[in-house]
């Protein structure tokens, strides 16, 4: 048993050190390829966006959905929708069309809306399945108690 714990600790240390080395290498590449001012502005913007908008929104949704029955499912769906929107945001806010039509050739607004519709459908389906299972369990418990 002690050997397994030791191997797990060594594995975590190696993986953690590898992650730090890769992050440092990526940071150096970004630093070398961009002007230092651009990197600092991007980092500051990311911190402001996260701490000023994303984190308060997530906390507010968590508080507002606290009393609901399927709050975990709803919170997961909202968090996934937020992530999908953040991923699509750069191409949604892209500048006007360029001279090269192959730069951003797809309809990204439609793609985001389709993704959100699929997410909504899956969330509703999972909620319905949970509700049916809950009713069946309640009926089974009621039948056993009689």
Description of the structure:
The chain has 146 residues and is mainly α. It has helices at 2-33, 36-64, 71-92, 108-145. The N and C termini lie far apart (48 Å). The model has no long low-confidence stretch (mean pLDDT 84).
Q: In a few lines, what is going on in this structure?
A:
By secondary structure, the protein is mostly helical. 83% of the residues lie in helices and 0% in strands.
Give the % helix.
over 70%
Alpha carbon gap, first and last residue: 48 Å
Q: State the oligomer.
A: single chain
**Count of helix runs:** 4
Gyration radius, in Å: 23 Å
Largest sheet at a glance? Answer: none
From the spread of the alpha carbons, the general shape counts as extended
Low-confidence stretches: none
Approximately how much beta-strand content do the residues carry?
under 5%
Alpha-beta content class? mainly alpha
The ordered string of helix (H) and strand (E) elements is HHHH
How many β-strands, per DSSP? 0
Mean pLDDT: 84
Outline the fold blueprint.
Layout: H1 2-33, H2 36-64, H3 71-92, H4 108-145
Helix pairs in contact: 3-4
List keywords for this structure.
extended; 146 residues; 4 helices; mainly alpha
């Amino acid at each position: 048993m002690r050997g397994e714990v030791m191997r797990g600790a060594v594995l975590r240390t190696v993986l953690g050190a590898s992650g730090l080395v890769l992050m440092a290498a990526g940071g150096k590449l970004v630093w070398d390829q961009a002007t230092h001012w651009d990197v600092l502005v991007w980092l500051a913007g990311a911190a402001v966006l996260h701490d000023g908008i994303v984190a308060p929104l997530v906390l507010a949704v968590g508080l507002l959905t606290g009393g609901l029955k399927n709050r975990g499912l709803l919170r997961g769906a909202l968090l996934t929708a937020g992530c999908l929107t953040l991923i699509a945001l750069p191409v949604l806010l892209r500048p006007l069309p360029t001279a090269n039509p192959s730069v951003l050739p797809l309809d990204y607004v439609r793609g985001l809306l389709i993704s959100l519709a699929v997410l909504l459908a899956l969330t509703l389906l999972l909620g319905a399945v949970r509700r049916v299972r809950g009713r069946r369990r309640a009926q089974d418990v009621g039948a056993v108690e009689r």
